[in-house]
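Q: I'm building a small set of examples for a reading group on sequence design. Run inverse folding on the following structure and report the sequence directly after it, with nothing in between.
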């Protein structure tokens, strides 16, 4: 097949992935159990209806990783047929040979204070140990949380992970050879103490890894005092994430009231510019939620930020249950594909590379990441010896029951 045909086939498959991300996938408990999730296959980090564990992610034939969102009424279904996993759409086979990611060995270990390591640091598909350091956001106390965000919806389960726990998990994951970087995320800590927390945590992790430099990212709210951004760099972080979520200044005020009142939208943009000077071109990420504001506004933000080396990440809108936006919906797959293709083109135009874009993210299975993979011809279907193709062989070694 010619390269053009392969690309065309890949875009068709990517469009189905976008559908599955928006509308979800049906999975019976029997199929979930057959995947071996939680035993040899890496299980999902989010709870889903049903009793059996689900794989975190599944890989389509062209090599797209789809994070599994279980939806009982979806027209897409993951099924187990004649020893293979397949995806059906309205009862007809769409993809065969669906693969799952192997479960890392450190998921079986506990920290010295008895916490399951898989709950402290989750391994993402690009070798990134992602740490949700807390599940609270101080904006909630003032009823100023972002209107789509469900971080505080289970207050009975609050936690704050310790530096020691994080260091033990990072060491286990790096020693196993499955991790190559660390990414921190979570809510805003009361009195804005997240900078101290991050500095302590990265120091403990680096000590545990013998003092060496590691690629690491901290997600913070824009600080009032910009020297706090420099402190994160001095502590050893190589990347920083400062999420605006919304570019339009009036919609930002409504959807993100805590960010507006605590820092202010213009100051947020200034913080991203300052961070670019400190961390360098391509080492900063800023998330946007797609479809709350008009498409051209999100693209305007992504372009303005790409010009100063900030990777804009258009995240699919998925309002959490219990939030003011519950019941509203993500725009159509066509709308999102168009936005993501334009976002990719803008980033490329301003000189960002796929390596920078990937390293700026904890999870690299976004739609614009896949567009980079298609355009750079590094998907497994292009049959080259890229790192991603080598990674594919690791997936093929998973043994299914
Ligand atoms: S600042 Fe972040 S964690 Fe807090 S409500 Fe907004 S999106 Fe959620």
């Amino acid at each position: 097949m010619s390269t053009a045909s392969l690309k065309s086939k890949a875009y068709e498959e990517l469009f189905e992935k976008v559908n599955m991300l928006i509308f979800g996938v049906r999975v019976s408990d029997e199929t979930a159990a057959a995947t071996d999730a939680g035993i040899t296959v890496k299980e999902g980090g989010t709870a889903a209806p049903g009793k059996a564990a689900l794989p975190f992610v599944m890989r389509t034939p062209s090599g797209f990783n789809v994070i599994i969102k279980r939806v009982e009424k979806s027209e897409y279904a993951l099924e187990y047929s004649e020893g293979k996993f397949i995806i059906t759409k309205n009862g007809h086979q769409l993809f065969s040979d669906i693969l799952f990611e192997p479960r890392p060995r450190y998921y079986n270990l506990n920290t010295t204070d008895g916490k399951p390591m898989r709950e402290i640091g989750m391994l993402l598909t690009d070798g990134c140990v992602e740490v949700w350091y807390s599940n609270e956001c101080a904006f909630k106390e003032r009823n100023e949380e972002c209107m789509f965000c469900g971080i505080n919806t289970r207050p009975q389960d609050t936690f704050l992970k310790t530096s020691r726990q994080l260091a033990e998990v990072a060491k286990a994951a790096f020693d196993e050879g499955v991790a190559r970087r660390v990414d921190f995320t979570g809510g805003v800590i009361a009195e804005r103490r997240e900078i101290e927390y991050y500095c302590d945590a990265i120091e403990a992790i680096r000590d545990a890894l013998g003092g060496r430099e590691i690629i690491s990212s901290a997600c913070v709210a824009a600080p009032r005092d910009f020297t706090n951004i420099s402190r994160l760099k001095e502590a050893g972080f190589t990347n920083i994430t400062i999420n605006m979520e919304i570019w339009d200044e009036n919609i930002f005020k409504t959807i993100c009231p805590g960010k507006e009142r605590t820092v202010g939208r213009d100051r947020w943009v200034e913080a991203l510019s300052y961070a670019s000077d400190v961390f360098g071109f391509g080492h900063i990420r800023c998330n946007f939620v797609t479809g709350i504001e008009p498409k051209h506004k999100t693209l305007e933000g992504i372009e303005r930020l790409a010009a100063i080396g900030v990777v804009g990440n258009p995240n699919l809108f998925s309002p959490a249950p219990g939030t003011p936006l519950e019941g509203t919906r993500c725009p159509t797959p066509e709308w999102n594909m168009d936005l993501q293709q334009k976002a990719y083109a803008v980033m490329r135009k301003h000189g960002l590379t796929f390596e920078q874009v990937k390293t700026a993210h904890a999870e690299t299975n976004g739609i614009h990441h896949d567009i980079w993979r298609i355009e750079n011809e590094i998907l497994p279907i292009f049959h080259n010896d890229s790192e991603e193709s080598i990674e594919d062989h690791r997936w093929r070694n998973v043994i299914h029951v």
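The CA atoms of residues 135 and 151 lie 6 Å apart.
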